[in-house]
Amino acid sequence: MTTEILINATSYEVRLALVEDGNLSEYHMQRPTEKGLMGNIYKGRVVRVLPGMQAAFVDIGLERTGFLYVDDVCVPSNSPNFDPCITDCANTHVRSQGLHIEDLISEGQELLVQVSKDPIGTKGARLTCHITLPCRNLVFIPQTDHIGISRKIEDEELRNNLKQVIEEIRPKNSGFIVRTVAKDSSIEELEADMEFLMLLWESIIDKAENMETPSLIHEDLDITLRSIRDFFTTDVDSLVIDDPVAHRKLLDHVKTFAPQLLDKITLYQDSTPLFDAHNIEVEISRAIEKKVWLRSGGYIIIESTEALSVIDVNTGRYVGKNDLGATIFKTNMEAAVEIAYQLRLRNIGGIIIIDFIDMEDDTHREQLFETFREAVKKDKSRINILKLSEFGLVQMTRKRNSENLHQLMCEPCHYCSGEGMIKSRRTICYEIFRMISRNSQKHRGHTITLRVHPRIADLLQNEEEKTMATIEKGVNKRIVVAPSRDLHIEKYEIIWQS
Question: Are the C-beta atoms of 4 and 240 separated by less than 8 Å?
Answer without folding.
Answer: yes
